[in-house]
Amino acid sequence: MKVLVTGVAGLLGANFSNYLLDKGYEVVGIDNLSGGYRSSVPTGVDFHNIDLNDVKGVNAVFRFSKPDYVYHFAAYAAEGLSPFIRNYNYVNNVLCSINIVNACVNFDVKKLIFTSSMAVYGEGDPPFNESQRPAPEDPYGIAKYAVEQDIALAKKMFGLEYSIIRPHNVVGLYQNIWDRYRNVIGIWIRKILDDEPVTIFGDGTQRRAFSDIEYYMKPFEKLMTDRNTDDMTYNIGADKDYSINEAAGLLMSVSEEFGYTPTRVHLEPRNEVHTAYCDHDLARLDLDFEDNTDLRKTMREMLQWALSQPEHPIKDME
């Protein structure tokens, strides 16, 4: 089978493409390299450096490659920044996604798998479960929920099969640590390597659950092979939650093994959901999902990987 992966140079895309290639799938990858690096694209991927806002370019890839399945991972997942980059957020996370939905319909893709976000729940009542009515509180969550609704409508009107995954706080190799605005553990790793303080917004009592990308691979694949997952939505991530202070302290402890002695600084609080983590019972039931994240081990692996990478410019946004 042929699988098309958007955001193939990113954390989800690079790791899942590696997995698919090892399993014998043909993999077509699209990425504009705005949030990932060409070196992260696995050898063997039929890679296309295209912006998903380029409708003609997207359609050309679909027309030529004729994918059976599409995993739409590409997004700009800067939740806290999204109120300040509204146009950029909606273009990248809504309009680009709609171009993928249209291409899936027009080129008879068997199924679209879309990665949404825990951000659709808003403040909610954690642990969030899939039956909870979404109430996003920032433009990023609004964008993700809008695409979820559009995909459901594409099924109703055009018969496009789909599954929606809501991952949260995913960590692992190939994470872009040079983006100042997203992936807090990646941000902290870059700061530690540059001898900068670990920064925390507010008092650090906010709670999140960090999950290793390693445990997403088989459940992701099952979304292609198991028809019982069609038209379903799944939370996926770690069960154990940490305060931001606890996560920062754990990473600082790990970094001392590498000879670093970081400090921490508390910054002005920002408008964000205080406590956010999910229930994963449905993913365990339908996708055989089992999270065995050892956050200290994952942080150590990420630090080792980061030390082997070339320097990249730090991403700044207007």
Question: Notable features of this structure?
Answer:
single chain; 318 residues; alpha/beta; 7-stranded parallel sheet; 14 strands
SSE order and pairing:
Elements lengths: L1 E5 L4 H12 L3 E5 L15 E3 L6 H11 L3 E4 L13 H21 L4 E5 L23 H20 L3 E6 L2 E2 L12 H10 L4 E4 L5 E2 L2 E2 L4 H9 L6 E5 L5 E2 H13 L7 E4 L7 E2 L4 H7 L7 H13 L11
Parallel strand pairs: 1-2, 1-4, 2-3, 4-5, 5-6, 6-11, 7-10, 8-13, 9-14
Antiparallel strand pairs: 9-12
Helix pairs in contact: 2-3, 3-4, 5-7, 5-9, 7-9
**Rg result:** 19 Å
Helix content: 25-40%
> For the residues shown, what is the average pLDDT?
96
The best one-word shape is globular
The helix tally amounts to 9
Major β-sheet strand ordering: 3-2-1-4-5-6-11
Residue windows where pLDDT falls under 50 for at least 5 positions: none
Strand content: 15-25%
Question: How would you portray this structure in words?
Answer:
- With 318 residues, this protein is α/β, with parallel strands linked by helices.
- It has helices at residues 11-22, 55-65, 86-106, 139-158, 184-193, 217-225, 244-256, 281-287, 295-307, and strands at 2-6, 26-30, 46-48, 69-72, 111-115, 162-167, 170-171, 198-201, 207-208, 211-212, 232-236, 242-243, 264-267, 275-276.
- Helix 7 packs across helix 9 (295-307).
- The longest helix is centred in the N-terminal third of the chain and has 21 residues, at 86-106.
- It is globular and about 55 Å long.
- The model has no long low-confidence stretch (mean pLDDT 96).
Describe this structure in a few short sentences.
The chain has 318 residues and is α/β, with parallel strands linked by helices. 36% of the residues lie in helices and 16% in strands.
